[in-house]
Amino acid sequence: MRTQRSALWRMAGFGGAALLFSILIIAVRVRWVPLESVDRGIAEELNEAVAPSDFLVTLMGGISRLGSFGVMAWLVVIGTTLVLVRKQYKLAGFLVATTVGGLILDPTLKLAVGRLRPVVEQPVAHGGGNSFPSGHSLNSLICYTALLLVFLPALRPRWRRAAVIGVGAIVLLVGFSRLALGVHFLSDVIGGWSLGIAWIGLCATAFELLRAHEGRRVTEPLEEGLEPEAADDLRPTEPHEHRSGTARALALGAVAWVFTFGALVVVGLPLARYEDGNGNILWDTTIPHWFAANRSDVLGHVSIVGSEVGNTHAILAIGLAIGAVSLAAIRRWRPVIFLLTVMFGELSLFLASAAIVDRARPDVENMDGPMPTSSFPSGHVAATILIWATAAVLVMPRTRAWWRWAFLALAVAMPAWVAVSRMYRGMHHPTDIVGSALLSALWLGAAYWLVKPNCDLAEQPCEEDAPEPVSDLEDAKAAR
């Protein structure tokens, strides 16, 4: 009986949100004067308060990005990947249906209503398209709530209320940031929230009806999540004991970083000083000039793709995908920690060594324009080597299937493609590629030795799972 009353209250809430949105859309369409007066007054007051402060503008911009497509899309992709690998197909369908629904509702309603963005005295941000409803407000409520409902069973009961409050705070802050930046009216934000509540409520109700049709009990989504029975599958890792050893690994990692940095500087500085960075060591002048003399439209397009697959955004996307699949399939943190160690170590080593070496780019036409960083080492090539080598290290020992060899092939082919593309476009010397290979080899070896990402496959247990050492006194007592 309590469950039925709760379900009725939820349906009433979703219906009320849908009614509020309907009223708002009519008021906006007919340009109801009281509503427009409130909207414009709040927009002007917030603009006067926020625009003069660079700190507030930066803060509001950062909060606003939490509701951007780029951030939320990756959160949903990672969440969907996790539940798919764990064979929770209905939950994956729920995530996809709710988020795709938001992506459909936002632009179509903006186009139908046709409301212009606020015009403020001191613009600090630009919003594309029409104003009503707020897409950031709508989609942040849908995506974060959908993820909450799916993964709530994985949390311990005492943390669930905090998670609900946290998600609510993020949604409220994203909506406020859109007002503070002057790209939406108050009614746009409230319209986005009300539509989001109605949509996520409809999807959650449909999920509950499906459970009831299968003869399972109806849940309390904000207390138990959508699928309480899936709690064990939704937890990121299997339970295991943790032992101390982090401090030792961090200390040794810092030593390995310093030695790798030193090796890069020792190799790079002479290259940067010899003939202003364009000496012909290992054909550093010959090869870039040959590429520049033999450029064509077709090879230019191939090189653009080859260069882009090694840029920061592509490597980040690949890394997120590898991390999500590793966590879902292996159910241990070590592979993810290994991936993070490798990639953040590479980024810091590249930036630090490039700043010290400061080698000039090849003295040929640069097809990508001026670059802010040094030519030595190539960050694109180092990142590509390490991301695909990491994938191969994690996959190869864990399966005997034929497709595992594809990862080894990618670990060889992708860096080669990126390296040739970067030299073709006049971005790097051959010895810059050598520097990237040196960085990758030293840091990958150090990270593998320190983190031991595949130790769960060995006969000896991982350090975190190893039994506590037994003292001599305890040995003697056991012998007696």
Automatic annotation (TrEMBL):
SUPFAM superfamilies the record matches: Acid phosphatase/Vanadium-dependent haloperoxidase
Acidic residues bias (residue ranges): 221-231, 461-473
Keywords linked to the UniProt accession: Membrane, Transmembrane, Transmembrane helix
Official protein name in the record: Phosphatase PAP2 family protein
Segments of skewed composition (Basic and acidic residues): 232-241
Transmembrane keyword on record: yes
Organism: Dactylosporangium aurantiacum
Region described as Disordered: 220-241, 461-480
Transmembrane segments: 7-28, 66-85, 92-113, 137-155, 162-186, 192-210, 249-272, 312-330, 337-357, 377-395, 402-421, 433-451
Pfam families in the record: PAP2
Residue span(s) of domain Phosphatidic acid phosphatase type 2/haloperoxidase: 89-204, 338-448
Signal sequence extent: none
Top-level lineage group: Bacteria
